[in-house]
Amino acid sequence: MSHFSKIPPHVLDAAADWLVLLHSGEMTEIQQQQFEQWKAEKKQHALAIQQIEKFTQGLTGLANNFPSESLVQSNQKFNQTTKRNMLFSLSGLFALGLAMYLMPWAKWQSDYHTEIGEIKTIPLKDGSQLILASDSYIQVNFSQQIRQIKLIEGEIYIQTAKDPQNRPFMVETQNGSVEALGTQFTVRQEHREQTKVKVYQHAVAIQPQVSSQRQILQQGQRTFFDSSHISKPIALENDKPYWTQQLLVVEQWPLQKVLDELYRYKKGTYFIDPELKDIHISGVFSLQNTQQSLETLAYTHQLELSYYSPYLLKIKKR
To answer: Would you tell me which of 150, 203, 246, 255 could form a disulfide with 139, CB atoms 3.0–4.6 Å apart?
Structure first.
């Protein structure tokens, strides 16, 4: 468990998908080379493979011991449906096992959460409104002294209401606190590394966890902070949080950043040819139908989408 906690979730997801492909028996020589390159890129990659293989002992035997008659037709190769089903089953086994094993206790104790791809509106008892982005977890603590939201993971949009008791409205993250000063704003927990804040109306006060520095962030500004430092504020790109309307609005974003945002609303992971990562993208994309958004990107920028499992996508130039 201690080894898993040191590895970022996106690395574990990628490692699981590589192992699904490896155990499927359908990995080509080129894919094998890509797998070895990915594993050698960072120490975390190799460690993730090692830890998942330990966790899923017996999976290889399961894959190799499927009755041959269920995988062949008339002594020919696997048909496409059987291969897809097999990959889907193995992917599901990885995903389910990892989710149960890796989910922190704080997530189990959350008051509200969203599944991957889900956006949920939550009315609070003080009249405020909160919207949870995909795969987000919060705890709500309203007392006589304070209105507190603990953001365990993910992103939230908050529209605060005036409180007759004049209690402060606080959002606590793993990096510090954000106090609403009569406002509309979003807070996003980036794993444990940093917190992103965007203010769409009025202002907020940011207080890092282990610093005496307190900074006011004004309407139309965004910033990020860790437990000891607040970055310099910069202007917002959009005048509203479009994700609350299930839209991703981008202007001159690198392709990799666009894909990362889409995959916050989609299960699985992707691999992209390095020369494509910095292609500039502008447009409006659906977060409700991420598959359609991927196909739109592929059509408008001459990309080839190759699916090796329902959860593993390879993107290259067409």
So the answer is: 150
| Residue-level pLDDT at 77 | 39
Helix axes 9-24, 43-55, angle to 10 degrees: 60
**Radius of gyration (Cα) for the chain, nearest Å?**
22
For residues 132 and 188, give the distance between their C-alpha atoms in angstroms, rounded to a whole number: 10
Helix extents (H) in 8-164: 9-24, 29-41, 43-55, 59-64, 80-102, 105-108
Annotation: CATH topology of 108-235: Jelly Rolls (2.60.120)
**Structure-token pair, residue 209:** 């966890």
**Six-digit token string for 157:** 């949009």
Could you tell me the two tokens for 88? 């889907």
| pLDDT the model gives residue 281 | 95
What CATH code would you report for 246-317? 3.55.50.30
Closest by Cα among 38, 7, 174, 194 to 102: 7
Residues making up the chain, counted from first to last: 318
Residue type, 23: H
Short-list 206, 165, 158, CA closest to 183: 158
| Sequence ranges of the chain with CATH classification 3.55.50.30 | 246-317
pTM reported for the whole predicted model: 0.71
